């Protein structure tokens, strides 16, 4: 078999098998990569590996993909890589530019703050805002159908000197050189890896704790709306409003206009502030009917378009999603032939859109290091996975702390969080905020084995680390030419 899953009733390839999907030790053939999870991280990695000429297959636990109907905002720190892959125009077809970062209002629609972003002349790109499912569907369309397998949740895996064998709950197995856990916050790959490391006394105590839950969100996207009633939907750029409840109302609700004359909405409740709200949102029954009950309890909330109820009525209840805002920063991202990316390695609060961006940045950096593996053997694989974590760890850790601060500012309702919001929006110089935006915009990793996207904007970009393999190939080519000349 090439790399496809096989039934466990058949004997798996032996350690000395010469199957096409597992190069022998020291082989110049690129590694075969098994990706668990068809979320944004897994799909983006698959596209990158395809461009790198690295064999891969994606195994998704669900029978079909139903991405959350949340809103997403991407900026220069990942748009450069998207443009490099030739996907930028596709993205623009279902997004709107967020030229102002929007307005923050009280629940009486009184002004709190107006957010601005760096100009495109400086940063090179406009922020693009869109419903998350549309990015997911676009990436999925770029994956060959034979490369993805559904109803394939990882049960366990075994690593050896010769490869990794993954067994799924549907009684199939697959063998490869590297296993990538891109299967989200409830990662089965991480769970099995950590159990193994814990038994061997190799798991840090910090990785043995559960995720922290601070907020719950209800979100959806309306059908096409009447522009006569909602004139904002006709504007070229996205119109964004965040509304913060008063002292007795632990909710924050946000609206964004998106292409198709639609509005994305998001209602967030902070846990631990109001017992009634906690009980309402922590109900374990997350079926559409229960979501509708919750929506009815908050439909009177005011928006710049009327009430939330008006938007709820224009949203099919079966596409409304309910999610926890959880966070956890793990210390262990790889061991042996196994590596974690995205939410499986670091679950960030979605307050700044950093979760999806960092997941795709993980995919870029991991693809760079996988491309450098030559020859394919366990030693080089371990080096590549270690270097991936070293390159990404501090960058993600910095983002992790920032998402906590952003969540308190956007969704916090405790007394001190309200004071913090007042101080930041009234006393902190605008120049300090611009410096942070510049820092974030300057970090925009790309695949170093492909031609780079054109330089955009006047902002100095952090230099891209060159590919060791590309440099070595150039040196060997120069030596060959020199020998031929002699």
TrEMBL record:
Start and end residues of each stretch annotated as Disordered: 1-28, 448-486
Keyword Membrane tagged: yes
GO molecular function annotation: FAD binding; monooxygenase activity
Domain FAD-binding: start-end pairs: 33-194, 316-397
UniProt keyword terms in alphabetical order: FAD, Flavoprotein, Membrane, Monooxygenase, Oxidoreductase, Transmembrane, Transmembrane helix
Signal peptide: none
Biased composition annotated in UniProt, kind: Low complexity: 10-21
Biased composition (Basic and acidic residues): 470-480
UniProt entry tagged with the keyword Magnesium: no
Domain of life: Eukaryota
A Pfam family this chain is assigned to: FAD_binding_3
Annotated family: Belongs to the paxM FAD-dependent monooxygenase family.
Protein name: FAD-binding domain-containing protein
């Amino acid at each position: 078999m090439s790399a496809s899953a096989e039934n466990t009733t058949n004997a798996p390839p032996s350690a000395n098998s010469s199957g096409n999907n597992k190069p022998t030790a020291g082989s110049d053939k690129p590694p075969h990569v098994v990706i668990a999870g068809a979320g944004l991280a897994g799909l983006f990695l698959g596209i990158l590996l395809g461009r790198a000429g690295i064999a891969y297959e994606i195994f998704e636990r669900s029978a079909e993909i139903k991405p959350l109907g949340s809103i997403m905002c991407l900026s220069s720190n990942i748009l450069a890589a998207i443009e490099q892959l030739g996907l930028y125009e596709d993205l623009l077809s279902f997004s709107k530019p967020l030229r102002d970062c929007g307005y923050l209002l009280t629940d009486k629609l009184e002004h709190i703050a107006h957010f601005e972003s760096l100009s495109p002349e400086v940063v090179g790109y406009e922020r693009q805002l869109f419903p998350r499912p549309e990015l997911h569907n676009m990436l999925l369309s770029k994956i060959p159908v034979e490369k993805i397998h559904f109803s394939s949740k990882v049960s366990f895996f075994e690593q050896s000197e010769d490869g990794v064998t993954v067994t799924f709950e549907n009684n199939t197995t697959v063998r490869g050189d590297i296993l990538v856990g891109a299967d989200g916050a409830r990662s089965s790959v991480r769970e099995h890896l950590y159990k193994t490391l814990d038994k061997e006394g190799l798991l840090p105590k910090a990785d043995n704790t559960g995720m922290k839950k601070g907020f719950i969100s209800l979100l959806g996207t309306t059908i096409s709306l009447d522009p006569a009633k909602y004139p904002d939907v006709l504007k070229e750029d996205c119109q964004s409003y965040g509304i913060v409840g008063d002292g007795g109302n632990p909710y924050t609700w946000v609206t964004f206009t998106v292409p198709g004359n639609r509005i994305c909405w998001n209602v967030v409740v902070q846990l631990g502030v109001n017992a009634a709200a906690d009980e309402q949102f922590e109900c374990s029954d997350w079926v559409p009917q229960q979501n509708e009950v919750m929506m009815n309890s908050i439909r009177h909330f005011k928006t710049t378009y009327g009430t939330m109820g008006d938007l709820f009525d224009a949203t099919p209840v079966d596409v409304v999603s309910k999610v926890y805002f959880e966070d956890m920063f793990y210390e262990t991202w790889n061991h042996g032939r196994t590596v974690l990316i995205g939410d499986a390695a670091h679950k960030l609060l979605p307050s700044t859109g950093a979760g999806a961006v960092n997941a795709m940045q993980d995919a870029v950096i991991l693809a760079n290091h996988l491309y450098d593996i030559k020859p394919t053997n366990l030693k080089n694989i371990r080096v590549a996975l270690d270097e991936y974590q070293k390159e990404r760890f501090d960058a993600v850790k910095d983002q992790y702390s920032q998402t906590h601060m952003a969540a308190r500012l956007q969704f916090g309702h405790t007394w001190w969080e309200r004071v913090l919001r007042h101080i930041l929006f009234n006393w902190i110089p605008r120049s300090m905020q611009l410096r942070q935006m510049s820092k974030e915009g300057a970090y925009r990793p790309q695949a170093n084995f492909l031609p780079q996207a054109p330089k955009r904007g006047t902002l100095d970009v952090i230099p891209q680390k060159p590919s060791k393999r590309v440099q070595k190939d150039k040196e060997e080519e120069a030596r060959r030419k020199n020998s031929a000349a002699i």
